[in-house]
């Protein structure tokens, strides 16, 4: 008998809220990126106020504030801005398309 591994979903808003508390983060969006083993992993697109901020710094920061399964195992990418609608809603579809293009390269 085969038992499927349980998949734990991570709410993007929860990770975004945690990351926004970091003093060098001005904006952030989290999406799920495909993974063969897990199905999907959380990935963050981050607008930083301090160019010296590294992905490792954010991984360490989150490691102190969230459970291990909620860490950004899909990666962190620094961007100049987060795409948003006129109403201020994050346009996650654009980020997923951007990620898909990068994964094809």
Automatic annotation (TrEMBL):
UniProt similarity note: Belongs to the ATP-dependent AMP-binding enzyme family.
The keyword Amino-acid biosynthesis is annotated on this UniProt entry: no
Listed InterPro entries: AMP-bd_C, AMP-bd_C_sf
Keyword line: Ligase
A Pfam entry, by short name: AMP-binding_C
Source organism of the structure: Priapulus caudatus
Protein name: 4-coumarate--CoA ligase-like 7
Domain AMP-binding enzyme C-terminal: 14-89
UniProt lineage: Eukaryota, Metazoa, Ecdysozoa, Scalidophora, Priapulida
Keyword Translocase among record annotations: no
């Amino acid at each position: 008998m085969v038992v499927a591994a349980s998949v734990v979903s991570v709410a993007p808003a929860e990770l975004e809220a945690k990351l926004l508390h970091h003093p060098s983060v001005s904006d952030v969006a989290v999406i799920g990126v495909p993974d063969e083993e897990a199905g999907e992993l959380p990935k963050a697109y981050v607008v930083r106020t301090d160019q010296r901020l590294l992905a490792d710094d954010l991984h360490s920061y989150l490691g102190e504030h969230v459970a291990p399964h909620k860490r950004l195992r899909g990666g962190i990418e620094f961007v100049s801005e987060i795409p948003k609608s006129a109403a201020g809603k994050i346009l996650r579809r654009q980020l997923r398309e951007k990620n898909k293009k990068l994964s094809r390269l």
